[in-house]
Design goal:
It is built from 14 helices and 15 strands. The protein has 367 residues and is an alpha/beta fold. A hairpin with a 2-residue loop joins strand 2 and strand 3. The chain is elongated, with a radius of gyration of 22 Å.
């Protein structure tokens, strides 16, 4: 089984320094998983936290330049801590630093996938983190919960374990309410309900960026790939193996029956939309209810400038995003052929790439 384990800063740090004892115990658990025949990938936060410790900072920097500098100081310490810990169990690790651009660009996406899968074939544990030293708001994942879901989908994992500082999702804040009840099992479809998402709050730590809400959003994304997501207490040892042996621990979010292919998963979650196409009611019904391609006859207007192969949103007349796909024509070409029949494309443009503006094989319906 292929497993992704997400470790937050609060799991591997103590008093604003790396908790090498906990990292060592995690390495021991991962060693056992490898021995049991599982392939393991770790998505680890901690670079900024490690840098804060080395620089004697007590508050997370707010300015992007300072965050990048602190991450640069801390990243080497973070990977070296993993290197030392895993070597005690005869395991090798590899550092991989990613930005959202590595997912948005199809070639870089495939290259990232191939690198990680090759490392797993060599029985090497990839340690993946966002490249905070160069990431800006425009190319950030937001948090490593989101990154872990994208990585799990990228490599075709079967399980994603998100280690939290609580036992799982509760019906209300267990810190405040003693009668809070742990929710042991959900379906990914349940995450569409606002009351479920409202149970989750933001981050309350000085060093982290994600709370339970971001974990549920990550679970929703991973569920689209058909991946089961476990939210468990990262302060307790040995839970992952016990879960894989059948114990019910923490909160598990089960995926739906449908599983996105790697390509469609990339379109949905990795690609960056360069614009949008407003479509009429008939085209919206054809796409949503009948699984049809988008034809030029159903297009009302175009927003943004984009080229052939770029990702764009399909929005209805109310402005609601109903689909996302890769376009066969540029924005300037679509402006000329919108509202026309497919048989008229060549007459208008002087050439024709395809009857469809977006083929259904390159189209994802958005919930």
């Amino acid at each position: 089984m292929r497993i992704v384990i997400k470790l937050g800063s609060n799991i591997i740090t103590k008093n604003l320094h790396l908790d090498e004892e906990r990292i060592s115990s995690i390495a021991g658990e991962v060693s056992e998983l490898w021995k049991d025949g599982h392939e393991v990938v770790i998505v680890s936060s901690g670079a900024i936290a490690a840098g804060m410790g080395k620089l004697n900072l007590i508050e997370r920097p707010k300015e992007i330049e300072k965050k990048q500098a602190v991450a640069a100081v801390g990243q080497s310490a973070l990977i070296w801590a993993y290197e030392r810990a895993f070597s005690r169990f005869g395991l090798k690790v590899a550092q991989i630093l990613l930005t959202a651009e590595d997912f948005a660009d199809r070639k870089r996406y495939i290259n990232s996938r191939n690198t990680i899968l090759t490392l797993l074939q060599l029985s090497i544990t990839p340690i993946i983190n966002e490249n905070d030293t160069v990431a800006t708001d425009e190319i950030k994942f937001g948090d490593n919960d989101n990154l872990s879901a994208l990585v799990a989908g990228l490599i075709g994992a079967q399980r994603l374990f998100i280690l939290s500082d609580v036992d799982g999702l509760y019906d209300k804040d267990p810190v405040i309410h003693r009668d809070a009840v742990l929710i042991k099992r959900l379906k990914v479809q349940d995450l569409k309900q606002k009351d479920i998402l409202n149970m989750a709050g933001g981050s309350s730590t000085r060093i982290g960026t994600g709370g339970m809400y971001s974990k549920l959003l990550a679970a929703k994304k991973a569920g689209g790939y058909g991946i089961a997501v476990h939210i468990i207490n990262g302060k307790r040892e040995g839970l992952i193996k016990r879960i894989l042996e059948g114990e019910e621990i923490g909160t598990v979010i089960m995926p739906g029956e449908e599983r996105l292919s790697s390509r469609k998963g990339w379109i949905a979650f990795g690609s960056r939309a360069k614009g949008s196409i407003t479509i009429d009611d008939g085209a919206a019904r054809a796409i949503k209810e009948m699984g049809k391609s988008l034809l030029p006859s159903g297009i009302v207007s175009i927003q943004g400038n984009f080229n052939i192969g770029d990702a764009v949103y399909c929005v209805d007349r109310k402005g609601i995003k109903i689909a996302k796909g890769l376009t066969n024509y540029s924005s300037s070409e679509i402006k000329k052929i919108k509202g026309r029949r497919s048989t008229e494309i060549e007459e208008v443009l002087g050439y024709k790439y395809s009857d469809e503006v977006i083929h259904r094989d390159n189209l994802i319906i958005l919930s």
